[in-house]
Predict the 3D structure of the following.
Amino acid sequence: MTSVLNDPTLERHFKGHRDTITSVDFNCNMKQIATGSMDSCLMIWNMKPQMRSYRFAGHKDAVTSVQFSPSGHLVASASRDKTVRLWVPSVKGESSVFRAHTGTVRSVCFSADGQNLVTSSDDKTVKVWTVHRQKFLFSLHQHINWVRCAKFSPDGRLIVSASDDKTIKIWDKTSGECVHSFYEHGGHVNYADFHPSGTCIAAASTDNTVKVWDIRTNKLLQHYQVHSGVVNSLSFHPAGSFLLTASNDSTLKVLDLVEGRLLYTLHGHQMSSASELGNGRGSCDEVRSRSGSCAQVLSSRPSKSQTSRSPGTRPSSAQPEPQGAGMVPAVLASTLEHIVAQLDVLTQTVAILEQRLTLTEDKLKECIDNQHQISSQLQTRS
């Protein structure tokens, strides 16, 4: 007989960033959390209340993504300043810089063996790096718009990428070839990741949906329409039976992949949320989330009988559970979502204008240098 899951409860609340938190990740030892923020800083938080947090400065613009290495001895960060940094999470906060992208770097991810990094960028590319030599290896080109996310498969052989061109692509890391593209989403794809088994992927989209595909048959397995806003991110439970999603509707939802249904809706954040499930290396399975300028840690303990099952293989559609009295009215939520979407468009426009201005400045400098060279040559001849 299957036992019932305990209700998730708020465990810790961290506050220290000066602007919106964009990314969060647990150390494998479950004693530290890394967060990145629009304030251009990376922070390392200790789970014990009496231990201080550390603020690392180095990026010149917003930090968009952070991740601990599998060993927990390094932290990688991606930034709007077009660079990737590799940090040693110690008091000194030493870091080395990776440069190859020509646009905002949206995500960074370690391979399971910790030997490689994969990054995605507004320059429409996915890039692979070596950690040991700290060098750029190669780029993956086929997306025709910004690439929001890129992840290694559990065995490191494949890479999944999600893009504003509304596609999810599966790449062979060895050959650099695109194995398959999924076009089923009606909006930009914000996030994609592999199931722990490596046989499936899930993707979150601006069309408010989450979809799960079998990459062996390239068929849609499950389609969830449980959020009322853009879905920002998702994370599989290490056992593969549950999927946590986060949305602009200010909620996180726990999906039961075996039954194909919504299990929990978690409230608490006042703004859009992003989320991940803990790595399962501890006394409990941690649910981590962030929004605004604070990070929250929640705890939930799935029973052994539930976590031992594998994902279902039938297509399904889970409907939203009844909304509580504390929810934002649908009309207001829709209006706020529209405003956020417009602000995102403005932000993207400004970013494009900045890139064009930079190119114009470079061209102007080149013209001035050429004129100086011509003047020098004429003076020499005369």
